[in-house]
Amino acid sequence: MTLQEVWIRLSAVRRLDAGHAEGIIRALFCQGHYGPSELFSCGLNAEQIEDFRNINQQWLSASLNWLEGDSRYLVTFGCALYPPLLAQIPSPPLILFAEGNPDLLLSPQIAMVGSRHYSHYGEQYAQVFAGGLVSSGFTVTSGLAMGIDGISHKATLEAQGKTIAVLGSGLMKRYPSRHLMLADSILEQGGALISEHLVTAPPLAANFPRRNRIISGLSAGVLVVEATLRSGSLITARYALEQGREVFALPGPLGSPTSEGTHWLIQQGAYLVTEPNDIAEHIGSGLTWFPTLPIPERPKAPRDKPPKASEAIICAQECEVELPFADVLANVEYEVTSVDVVAERAGQPVPEVVGKLLELELAGWIAAVSGGYVRIKRASHVRRTNVLI
């Protein structure tokens, strides 16, 4: 039994923690035996042993044969290609079948989702935001579904960007069939298709809500472009909140059913966005204070374009030190925020917070106004990092 087969068999085992699976893999592969007694000694119960041993043999063989093709990968939990953000979610997938460019899984991603039944407004702004996110250096992740998902993938490709499609079916059963050519285009332009299901798995209805947890889990934030109150994209937004991801929503025309879901999200606390830079600014709003140390003069290479937001997220200099009181600054909004609210959010005593607010005001980060404080700027000597605040 190959290591790939062991991973695939374990992925069919119900109620198996991903971290526990890693230990089982090591133990089994070292022993070289996969009988009931060995599986039991690794901590599997009788039902789980049945799952491991009775996996559909045709589906298993088809998946192993599929993996022999070019640009096809089995990304296993804990391996170098497994996305760190995805590993942090509750119930991360044990394996991912990937086709295309697997390195994209490690790139900074924003998910774009929305209703299958979309308006002209939703189509227009999905294109605007996809192009803007590409310009900021993000990979756009979505679900290859009809409607806003497909529009987002296409607009990303038209902007010469990279996109990841997360499927609710096996990669040999791409769904929907109307997007077969789109899936090919994603691969041709350096994107990726991924699925946690065996490659011959059909597109069952139960697969899609769980697929959504992967879309949000891969991403630093989720943008809901357009959604009715019954849209599946609200499931993705719920997963994002549970996973600690940012949720962004595009406001739409009043009275439009396809904007009722996004308006509801905004009422629940999602970030209202009106342009792509709103997302880039927010995702890249981790702050790092540069110490005032003398730096030798060096010739500057010409730069035609400003740094991308995604570069700012993943790049940091060794001489950087954390901004003092970032935990307090994170709770001061661009609208008036009272001292009591800041203290409550930060979980710190009011007198202590008052002192920190004063220092932040003197440093030029916030301003005292009637009723509290407002955040006013980000100075040029501050750089964005991967700390979300």
UniProtKB/TrEMBL annotation:
Family recorded in the similarity comment: Belongs to the DprA/Smf family.
Segments forming a coiled coil: none
PANTHER family membership: PROTEIN SMF
Protein name in UniProt: DNA-protecting protein DprA
Domain spans labelled Smf/DprA SAM: 1-65
Pfam families per the UniProt record, alphabetical: DNA_processg_A, SAM_SMF, WHD_DprA
Annotated DprA winged helix domain residues: 325-372
Record-annotated Smf/DprA SLOG domain positions: 75-283
Gene: dprA
Domain of life, per lineage: Bacteria
UniProt xrefs under NCBIfam families: dprA, PRK10736.1
UniProt organism field: Rahnella laticis
Listed InterPro entries: DprA, DprA_SAM, DprA_WH, DrpA_SLOG, WH-like_DNA-bd_sf
